[in-house]
Design brief:
The complex is a heterotrimer. By secondary structure, chain A is an all-alpha fold. Chain A has one domain. The longest helix of chain A is centred in the N-terminal third of the chain and has 35 residues. Chain A is globular and about 65 Å long. Chain B is about 20% helix and about 20% strand. Chain B has four helices and five strands; from the N terminus they run H-E-H-E-E-H-E-E-H. Chain B has a three-stranded antiparallel β-sheet. In chain B, strands 1-4 form a two-stranded antiparallel sheet. The longest helix of chain B is centred in the N-terminal third of the chain and has 16 residues. Chain B starts with 8 loop residues before the first helix and ends in a 21-residue tail after the last helix. By secondary structure, chain C is of the alpha+beta class. Chain C starts with 14 loop residues before the first helix and ends with a helix. The chains are: A mainly alpha, B alpha+beta, C alpha+beta. At the A-B interface, helix 1, helix 12 and helix 13 of A face helix 1 of B.
Chain lengths: ~350, ~160, ~400
Amino acid sequence: MSALPVLALQLGWGTTLAIKTLIILAIIPLGALILGYTFLLKMMSHMQSRLGPMDPGGFHGWYQLVGDGLKFLQKEDIMPAQADRRVFAVAPAVVVLSTFLVFLVIPIGPDLVVKNLDVGVFYALAVSSLSVIGVLMAGWASANKYALLGALRAAAQLIAYELPLLLAVVGVVIQASTMNLQGIVLAQQNGAIFGFSGLGQPFILTQFVGFALFLVAAQAELTQTPFDMPVAESELVAGYMVEYTGFRFLFFFIGEFGTAFGFAAIAATLFLGGWAIPGVHGTWANILGPFVLFAKLMAVAFIMFWVRFTYPRLREDQLQAVAWKYLIPLGLANILLTGVFKVAF
Amino acid sequence: MPQLPKPKLPGLIGGLGVTLKTMLRPAVTVQYPHEREAPAPRARGVIALKEENCTSCMLCARQCPDWCIYIEGHKEQRPPRREGGRPRSVNVLDRFDIDYALCMYCGICVEVCPFDALFWSPEFEYSEFQIGRLLHDKVKLGEWMQTVPEPEPLEVGAESKGKK
Amino acid sequence: MSTTEARPPAFQVDRAALRHLADAQVNVELDTGDMILNLGPQHPATHGTLRLVVRLDGERVVSADPVIGYMHRGYEKLTEFRTYPQITTLINRIDWLSSFANEVPFLNAAEQLMGIEAPPRSQYIRTVLTELSRIATFLLFLGEMGLQVGALTPAFYGFRDREHILNLIEAATGGRFHPNFNRIGGLKDDLPWGWIAECRSAMKIVLDACDDFEDLVLGNEIFEARTRGIGIVPAGVGASYGVSGSNLRASGVDWDLRRDARPYLVYPELDFKVWTHPDGDSYSRYWIRLQETRESARMVLQCLDQIPAGPIMAKVPRIIKVPEGETWVETENPLGQMGYYVISKGATGPFRVKIRSASFSNVSILPWLLRGVYVPDVITILASLYFILGDIDR
């Protein structure tokens, strides 16, 4: 990590490292909080004709999740008697670890990225699938049949939906000719639609199939309805997380919403142009970039959570059928067409 | 093998439309305790006692399915109504308790009282922290009389007047 | 696939191995192949304290045994020592969602034994309140079946729209859930002023809500994928197990006690359609109850147009002693067919009451129905059969 010139400041190597670590550590809980409050507490409530939390913090209950987090921190650490102690303790950490690692490559400004890997996309998707291990560990170590059922369903589902996720992204990579996330954003900013360069060329216009595929696969990766068999609330009552209380459950919760934050950020970067607004470069892009990315990310998250609160859940075999029989052929067809168009135009 | 139906997008989109439409409308929540909804005048909230009407006939205590009414009384002599008559004996209530921890709010006591001594009131906010305080004695039951609403008018076509 | 053929069992049931379930204490070490899962008395999907001991092979059910009785409150014993008004209060709580409908058959039985006919105005109001409780129960069903299948929002819509019905019932009777409004010979009170207009507007809200449910749940492809072909109850099997009500009509049997059995209340004078559906699966049970909600709303509007003026209570003595005799009255409750067999020996209370509750028979089909289905389908089937624990256990 070299020294980073930010706003004409020369920061040393150590300071940069410290700042980046702090940002990564802070952004996950913050992102989880913001997503959780806006969508889970407020949007879901209004979709259900109710208000959600109103009292904590005075103004529309903004303090609710913070209070929840503090409450979880002071709870007793209960471990089932027959649980595998070390595996039980480590499993939430593995799930959250994958979330933290994803944010290493997401750019929030032309110079603001923790590590601009050349294989950014590949790295992000690879690292986000580490959570499967954590889920399996949690389900097995809980010594509970419901947890085991949930974990096995989760393993099958998460592995099955990795492929559509990848295939959706390959179309974007072909179109941008690079796996570097910063490069993909710049390709969208500087591109042109039939010669008109005012809007740039957000890949959602040409890769709409890919966008839809990515959203569906991300929904499944996050085990959100309609793909929330592993956490089927009315059957398994929290599935693989059922034996977790207190701080460990908080980890799972942060992991779930942090990963939603991460996937929404990746979708905004790959398909909507990330931090870029066409025509804005340099220092202004560095200042406005995070907010632009945040706005686009919230739009994607809105769609994801809207679907989550509306649809019932698919059964496990139907879920697998959707992945293998519909999404993967669609993804392959998308890649074929993108390749053809890329060469032809 | 279970088959997926042919993907017909309209059904899925229609569902999204319903939730979006509901989100944009105001919520129906009544934020108790900042706002309160008034219950219907006939709502069975609490039973009030008009002591001067009660003659300790024990009908309510006997008919209560849970036996939650406790009545004790004694007879007193009152002066005769007119000159040269016999002294009257009157029932005086010593104790009239209703245990709201047992009461199931069925209303049989109010209905069978032949002297109109018991009334329904829609008041419902009398929760206590100690369960013993849910035994309301006759003083407290007399205080509930202030919350008893007037008998309301009945619907078109009804024959009887509004009762309690 | 024809729905009237018997379905071949997916797995051969091993009777000897199942015998250990008889005392409801399950020894896990007995079989290493299958997993025994307790959809225990406390579970979000079992609508109360129903315990299902399910034997799983992976995700498929090998056998399922319902264990009931966790909510037994001894109603039939309680009725032996109570008078008729007191029993009316208690039987509200058998099927607590449609409590008014529980009172009607019992008091009809008492009125039959006494030879009293309730005046027409009270019959109409009884019908209106019965249909209102049917709507309330079905709105809850439409919401919570969506919940069991995974959609979070329909449940809230069900409760939200039910509030209007409950407010109506409270305005008329004083209690939202337990009206305790029927009396031998009529009703306790007449309706308050303005009730009929409010009822009409509530029915409009109900009809709109049904359209919402149709868009949100019934038209949803995922819901269809989860419920079509799941839990098919062939008509013959259903009838032999005693399944009744909407469940049987969803299997294609055109049988409604309001129209077919001995007429009660004012149903002979109302013009209503009995809905049936040829498949017997969970989707059709949802569809049927949606249509019946709409039909009930229309019936209420019809009744409100036709309510005659007059008294609401027949001439009855102050202390009611029902003469000796026995009678059986059955009605079409929201959950199915409910009946009371009342034996009276001339006292102020009955000698013996036998309660035939709908959910008890509806649940008895579960061991037959749940063989060879997946675990998520168990939840769907339980939700679609729609039983209330108070009704099963009494």
